[in-house]
Amino acid sequence: RRVSCHCRSDGLPQQQVHQRWRWESALAVSVSSCRDSCQRGWRLMYILTAFHRCSEVMKPFLLKFLQDASENPGMAYQGIAKASEQNLKRTFQYGGRAQYPNTMELKAMLAGRSSKRQLFLLPGGIERHLKIKTCSVASDVIEELCFEMGLQRLEALDEYAVFLVTHKGNSNSFNRPLKNQYFRQVPLFVLKNKHKLY
């Protein structure tokens, strides 16, 4: 968490962290006794790519490195390399998560768990649990629900929305549409503003 906070405060160190991580992970992969260290390095990369952009100059090199690592059948940690690549692409598309993970989410990520099941209430009182990843946004949920309903046209996706509803049944109820926001940040917003989530 300190590394992530340090990266957020200065633009330059985050570039150095990405570069140093690439160098150290390549070195750790070549030394089999450093397996635990390599695993921790990949988990750190997963977290960094979810929260921080690298420079435009470094982006193609970092993406190429992650693609090579995820596509090489002999390479260890293919799954987390692919997830880190997806995180980096999402970070450039949506700007990266603005709020750092809470202690519980950070511990889960460091333990290798990058998703959680989230309850969604659909019209008619239907409850549906979906797997939410570190970089899942509201449009991902809409797309998944539409796919399950057999709606695969892009126009159909625009007809649906996800709302954050707090204080249900209260005159102080708060409805907020979510579009391209990171889902894992929504509970942090709710807790920070002392809302109840429904």
Automatic annotation (TrEMBL):
InterPro entries: MyTH4_dom (IPR000857), MyTH4_dom_sf (IPR038185), Unconventional_Myosin_ATPase (IPR051567)
Domain MyTH4 stretches: 1-110
One cellular-component annotation, GO: cytoskeleton
Pfam families: MyTH4
Name of protein: MyTH4 domain-containing protein
Lineage: Eukaryota, Metazoa, Chordata, Craniata, Vertebrata
